[in-house]
Design goal:
Blueprint: E1 3-6, H1 10-14, H2 16-25, E2 30-34, H3 41-45, H4 59-75, E3 79-84, H5 96-115, E4 119-121, H6 129-146, E5 153-157, E6 160-163, E7 166-169, H7 175-189, E8 194-199, H8 200-205, H9 210-217, E9 221-225, H10 246-255, E10 262-264, H11 267-276, H12 281-300
Parallel strand pairs: 1-2, 1-10, 2-3, 3-4, 4-5, 5-8, 8-9
Antiparallel strand pairs: 6-7
Helix pairs in contact: 2-4, 4-5, 5-6, 6-7, 7-9, 9-10, 10-12
Length: 302
């Protein structure tokens, strides 16, 4: 179980070389590569997405663009444990955007294939259950066919929806829905092409029983987004700074025999620290890594 840190804004704030060096100096062994920076969410929400996404470029052009990052990752001996695609893939009332998003995610999958990224997180469309199933089938169905003869695994997330200030389950927020969705897509792909990236912060937001969720989804959990929050906002903070019940969750993860990587999606925490004093970023990263060591021992049963 490698300890991994989402690259987030660190390479932008400190420069590519120093940003990845900080992750390594803090003791992390891998990264969750923030390829969601390929397009800003506002471009999608404002329907200004065409011509704005890096994934519209050819594969060779993408490799050239990301070569400085790949070089820094290699030089700092970091594994790319997983990567995160852009989001959202849909704006209310504009289903044509889904077709564009499918094509962009396909390019992202191709990029992951050639750069050796094993897991690619692609957010589903968080909507009510009836329309949500139809919209997500339109999003993931073509990707399932596309993944048939490939090696990359696409990870769905347990999402939440904000309804009038109240958080409730979004796509795959219910464990039974997650199981049914993943199994259906894998049947289309003819292999285990889909899995779950379990997000602890999202579990905390809509008050799901973390133990029951983990027990139900079981071995379909292939990756993690580990972070904390106060239960009413998706703040992406360091573990133990919010209200998530960590011991119950680690016990459940040990019970299902989880042995994948532990990736920390705590970019908001390091962004707040950076805004106060950039010199504090390394100590905070180190603290998160040390917390990760304890989480790893608990899951491993050591």
């Amino acid at each position: 179980m490698k300890l991994s840190m989402q690259s987030g804004d660190l390479p932008l704030q400190f420069g590519v070389q120093r940003g990845y060096a900080l992750i390594r100096e803090a003791g992390f062994e891998g990264i969750d590569w923030s390829l969601d920076h390929a397009i800003h969410p506002s471009k999608i929400r404002n329907l200004e997405y065409k011509g704005s996404c890096l994934f519209e470029r050819s594969l060779d052009e993408l490799l050239e663009y990301y070569e400085p990052s790949l070089k820094a990752i290699r030089e700092n001996e970091l594994s790319i444990c997983l990567a995160h695609s852009f989001f959202p893939s849909y704006t209310d009332g504009h289903e044509e955007l889904i077709d564009w998003s499918v094509q962009m995610h396909m390019r992202g999958i191709e990029f992951c294939e050639v750069t050796g990224v094993p897991y690619f997180v692609i957010h589903g469309i968080a909507a009510d259950s009836k329309s949500g199933e139809r919209l997500n089938t339109r999003l993931y169905g073509p990707l399932a066919e596309f993944l048939r003869d490939r090696k990359t695994v696409v990870c769905l997330e347990n999402l939440f929806v904000n309804v009038d200030g109240h958080m409730r389950e979004g796509h795959c927020g219910d464990p039974s829905e997650a199981v049914q969705t993943i199994d259906r897509l894998n049947a289309i792909a003819g292999r285990k092409a889909f899995a779950l990236c379990l997000d602890t912060g999202h579990l905390n937001l809509y008050g799901k029983d973390a133990v029951r969720y983990v027990e139900t989804v079981g071995s379909r959990i292939a990756a993690l987004h580990i972070h904390d929050n106060p239960g009413f906002a998706d703040w992406h903070m360091a573990p133990l700074t919010g209200s998530f019940h960590w011991k119950e969750w680690t016990d459940a993860m040990r019970a299902i025999g989880y042995n994948g990587d532990l990736s920390f999606e705590t970019f908001a925490q390091t962004n707040r620290v950076y805004d106060l004093d950039p010199d504090l970023v390394l100590p905070w990263l180190t603290m998160i890594r040390k917390t990760g060591e304890s989480i790893r021992k608990l899951i491993a049963g050591e």
